[in-house]
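User: Just a sanity check before I run the rest of the batch. Below are the structure tokens for the first item. I only need the designed sequence back.
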């Protein structure tokens, strides 16, 4: 969780003091974010357990937002972190 918090702070360019789980499903978790003063930030972060799922969902939401008559959540960015590969 600490790595996710630091990666979100890097992407947002703003300190994230804590994450609070809003929803947990088999393949993903949805988090509320709080700034360095403990105030809630006006956005949520979704973490996917499987590589490539975030990009796929972002693509689907983008397509829906173009052709939809209802409001669809905006995807501001997709970040991926991979553990370092081991050689030999």
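Assistant: Here's the designed sequence for the first item:
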């Amino acid at each position: 969780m600490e790595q996710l918090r630091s990666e979100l702070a890097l992407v947002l360019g703003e300190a994230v003091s804590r994450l609070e789980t809003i929803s947990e499903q088999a393949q993903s978790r949805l988090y509320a974010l709080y700034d360095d003063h403990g105030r809630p930030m006006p956005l949520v972060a979704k973490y996917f357990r499987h590589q490539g799922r975030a990009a796929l969902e972002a693509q689907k939401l983008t397509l829906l937002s173009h052709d939809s008559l209802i409001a669809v959540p905006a995807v501001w960015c997709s970040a991926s972190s991979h553990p370092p590969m081991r050689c030999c």
